[in-house]
Amino acid sequence: SLICITTTCVVSSYLLSRYLTQQMLYRDGVVMLEFVQSVADIENAKARAAGREPDVRDRGMHELFDHLAGVPNILRSNIYAPDQTLAWSSEKDLIGKRFNDNHELEHALKGELEIETGVTGKSEHPKHEHMFLSARPVQFVETYLPLRDKKTNRVIGVAELYRIPNALFETIDMGHRLIWATGILSGLLLY
Prior knowledge:
With about 190 residues, the protein is of the alpha+beta class.
């Protein structure tokens, strides 16, 4: 029947689109985590060689974060210490502040990769750390990357990146169009 075919095509297209988005964002987050962690490992080794424990407040780590802030399409980068204090930020006025009720940060401090998407200036209840991200509405990905000490595997901090990965968004949109076009054509053929 037409109702069954339509329902099946719409639900399947919706679920596939959602799955594609989640997996693409997750894979992008994993790649970012591997890159940032590999560079942090070098700074951690330097700290150990100098007789210090790895710490995101270390000057060598701040140089890494300065370079990270210069990567194209990054709106802001923040580095949180284990006590949830901003140890470093590309927005210097934020350094030393704490933002309460940040569940994504809490999860990342437990070692979990956290990814969110949003549009600047479009939320009814914006998070405090989203202040001054962009003067104009822009779609972004907010990624919380747990940084670990390679020797002990403990989380020594969290890198929070606000990025505008336009190529990723275009690929996801193209995938959505392909999924929905296939769903519609399949429905027409079945009918």
